Every structure is written in C-alpha cells, then in structure tokens.
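We include the pair:
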Amino acid sequence: MTIEAHISLKAENAGSVGRERIRLLEAVAREGSITAGAKAVGLSYKAAWDALDAMANLFGAPMLATRAGGKAGGGAELTPTGIRVIEAFHRLEAEMERTLRALQSELAGTGISPGSLITGFLMRTSARNTLRGTISAIQSDAIAAAVAVDVAPGTTIHALVTNESVRELGLCVGREAIVLVKAPFVVVATGKEPPAVSVRNRIAATVRRCTASDVSAEVVLDIGGGKSLAATISAASAKALDLQPGLPAFALFDASHVILAID
C-alpha cells in the first residue's frame, strides 16, 4: 500500500483549497482560458469559477488575469499570486512526502510504505546539466507539446514532451521548471553564427574550459547569467575544434533529449 500526502488549505469564512483546485488553476493557465481549463479537469464553467473565487478569497488576491478574446471566448493567465500559490502548494506536498519518508522505519510492519520518489527537494539525477528556469511558452498538438524554458537572460531551452506529461507535471507559462540534459546529448560547434542543423536547441555560448583525456573530453560552455552547459565529446573532436577558453561556440541538442522536472 502506498501512502500519499494530501494538503487542504483553509481559513475562516473561505473555502478550502486542495490538489484538485490547484490542478484547475494549472489547467486554466496551460489552456489559456477558464472554459478550456475547466473542461480539461472535468468541471463545469460555473464550478471552475466558484473554485477560482474560493482561491482568491483564501489568498486575498486573484489567481488569474482575464482578457477578452483568446481560446474558447476569453483568455486567462496566471497572476504573480497564482504562480506563487501553485509553487508553494507543491513545495508543501513535497515536504509532507519527505516527512513520511523520514518516518519509514517507524512505520515498518504497519503495511504503510511511504517510499515513492519525489522531485524537488529530494531529486537526484544522473544528468550532468540541471538548470532551473521559467516556462515562457507551451505549444501543443494532439500528441506532444513544445515547452520553452527561459534559463538565463536571452537563453531559452526547448523541450518536447507528451501532453500527458504537461498535465501530470502541471506545466504552465510562468511556472518554474528544472531542465535536465545529459552531457553526451550536447554537440559543440564553434563560430559566431549558429550552424544550419535540424536541432531545436542552438544555444549561443563561450567555452569556459575543456578537459580532455585520451578518449573523451568534457567541455563546459558559459551560456550567460552565471549558468553553463556541459558536453561530453571525443578527445579527437576537442583537439580539432581547438576549444580554448573564451572561444565563441554553440551547444546543440534536440528538444526530445530534454527532460523537465518540477519542485
């Protein structure tokens, strides 16, 4: 049996807010309208508005900014308060999961197994590149979604994920996300202009350092904002490119090689 932590936030004279209402808020932000967001989580338009009003009452500020036009007869996007509420809620859930995990030894023999892995506070990954950023755009079709994450000023990384992943992770514009890219997936090209190749991510950078062995080399590229991307390439390629510190370069990798995670 798996035990999950659920949070319900309440205040006097205000309705409670739990996971389902947070998912509604995420869906409205993701879909761009209250009508479409309500449909995505199986609620009526009125029930969605009631839930949004309850959240605004609880936190003392509106969660969404609405505008005329847009999808399904009216657009909507998260307010700064809405973004903070979503992030805080998921952090609270993660903290509760962590508490359950800490109690695992005491629960031995009770049939309770709080051992499910969580992202965020306890996330560990084998990916060499782990960058935090803010989702700036989501474009989806019937199967997949292209998600843009701003990781540094002027630097955006694009990921291609399934629509199911977008829903399960609660991805929406304005929310923070963690970008994971394995170093062997990153190709290095030199020059001041991006090469004409069929990869979505062509990140302008400068070489910070290159450490080579007999067979392979690790190249660390400065992408601005104090952030970097690492690439693992062959020692022969590193020698041919003459990757000296300060050399203009590009980090190239496909959007399908990008993994997204959330706190």
